Amino acid sequence: MSKSHRTSVCIIGAGPAGLLLSQLLANAGVDSIVIDRRDRSYIEGRIRAGVLERGTVDALTEAGVGDRMHQEGLVHEGFELAFDGERHRIDIAAHTGASVLVYGQTEVTKDLFDKRTAEGARFFFNAEDVTPEGMKTDQPTVSFTQNGTAMTVTCDYIAGCDGFHGVSRRAIPRDVLNTFERVYPFGWLGLLTERPPVSDELIYANHARGFALCSMRSQTRSRYYLQCEAGDDVANWSDTRFWEELARRIGEASAADLQTGPSIEKSIAPLRSFVAEPMRYGNLFLAGDAAHIVPPTGAKGLNLAVADVRLLSRALIERYRTGTTEHIGSYSQIVLARVWKVERFSWQLSNLMHQFPEHSAFEKRMQRAEFDYLVQSEAASKTIAENYVGLPLE
Ligand code: RFL
Ligand code: PHB
Fold first, then answer.
1. CA of 280 to the centre of ligand 2 (A)
2. Three-state DSSP class for 262?
3. How far is the CA of 16 from the centre of ligand 1 (A)?
4. Which helix (DSSP H) or strand (DSSP E) does residue 276 occupy?
5. pTM for the model
6. What integer pLDDT is reported at residue 2 of this predicted model?
7. In the prediction, which pLDDT does 195 show?
8. Is 210 a pocket residue for ligand 1 (Cβ < 6 Å)?
9. Nearest atom in ligand 2 to 102's CA
10. pLDDT, position 5
11. What is the pLDDT of residue 222?
């Protein structure tokens, strides 16, 4: 037996992109259904991004999910770049008049789930074999199985917010989709601990032994990352080994303030730059990681997903309010222009801050020269700051 449902926008994926889209649509009176292959607690437990751009903070505030974020988020007006233990501060506030907010993706997701649930949003969790179909018709469908029951959602539009490994992008015919990719020859090993951060601001460090990042979730909880070999196994990294390696990479002076403790979470993520074009196929729209991936060095992944969804929600709301499809038509083109700029920044900062196994002595000197220029030149520092705080939406 198959159960049928009807909605205006069927959203595949309950990550930050799908949840925020559902909220923005609901705020404008547009109905949606959200389908995910996992359940809420699994999604909330994924430790990922930590830095929110100004535009992301504005979007979450406008969506009505900003209260706890403003109370608990940490305002950061600068961050540090370090090379072989030498630290330089990039003053975001002085260069841009703006700041970023340190507030974890887990919390953003929880705030969105809380509001969506309180408003009675329709979710389908643990959905298997999710299949979008009929994207070139005006009645697309998404079918799936839940607890052995076959389900079909009929809608006007499908939003593919199902991340890099989702089904939405793969539903676009190969002769329509162009993909661009760079896989980096290393990964990031992340560790979360219930200890105060080593510094009030984030430190991105390039050291001959590899990159390290000192970040945080609150005044009492810190998040650290180490560049590790591609394909490395977390089992190779005891907490002791992690702390010793981090101390070496950030240098003696910084390590003196490091408060080590047991890890609450430890995981390895690969690094990749990826873009799929176009981000629309008929009545299917891609948003967030489903369409593009950035290496985490610029802290852009979540912010890019939010920017996509802001534009997509505006286009869809306009269509329901006025019947105009102008912004639906230009969605892919407008979003991609911004996506590529953010890809460029994330790629540049990744190239600057990591050790590349294939680099010659010449390329190592070039990297050092680029670092010196960036931190000594007012113009170059401003460039970094304006990208870090977030490029304008359009
Ligand atoms: P998400 O968060 O991946 O959510 C996608 C949702 O879709 C569901 N899904 C499916 N549902 C139905 N059917 C299917 N076939 C499905 N396949 C997948 C998934 O269960 C999930 O709930 O994508 P979204 O919403 O676009 O949000 C993007 C951000 O999550 C992402 O850009 C960032 O987290 C990227 N990222 C990081 N960004 C940073 O700025 N800083 C970081 O430190 C950082 N660390 C990370 C990351 C991404 C990681 N991934 C994707 C492996 C660490 C990791 C491990
Ligand atoms: C994090 O806190 O998880 C984080 C912060 C900055 C980044 C990447 C990750 O660039």
1. 29
2. coil
3. 8
4. strand 263-277
5. 0.97
6. 82
7. 98
8. no
9. 2
10. 98
11. 97
Tokens of 266: 């430890």
Cβ of 62: how many Cβ atoms within 10 Å?
A: 13
CATH number belonging to the domain at 184-271+357-389, selected among 3.30.9.10, 3.40.109.10, 3.40.50.720, 3.40.1080.10? 3.30.9.10
Please determine, looking at this structure, whether the domain spanning 2-74+104-181+272-351 carries the CATH number 3.50.50.60: yes
Task: Determine the residue of 102, 211, 225, 303 to mutate for testing ligand 2's pocket, defined as the one with the most ligand atoms within 8 A of the Cβ atom.
Answer: 225
Query: pLDDT tens-digit profile of 171-217?
Result: 999 999 999 999 999 999 999 999 999 999 999 999 999 999 999 99
**Ligand with the closest atom to the CA of 14:** 1
Please give the number of the atom of ligand 2 that sits closest to the Cα of 48: 3
Order the strands of the 86-91 sheet from edge to edge: 86-91, 78-83, 203-206, 212-216, 222-229, 178-193, 263-277, 292-293
Q: Residues in the chain with pLDDT < 70?
A: 1
66 lines ligand 2 (CB under 6 A): no
Answer whether 296 contacts ligand 1 (Cβ < 6 A): yes
Number of helical (H) and strand (E) elements in the chain, helices listed first: 12, 21
140 within ligand 1 shell (Cβ under 6 A) = no
Would you say 227 and 355 are in contact if contact means Cβ atoms under 8 Å apart?
yes
Catalytic residues: 76, 204, 296, 300, 388
Is there a contact between 227 and 186 (Cβ–Cβ < 8 Å)? yes
Per-domain boundaries in the chain: 2-74+104-181+272-351, 184-271+357-389
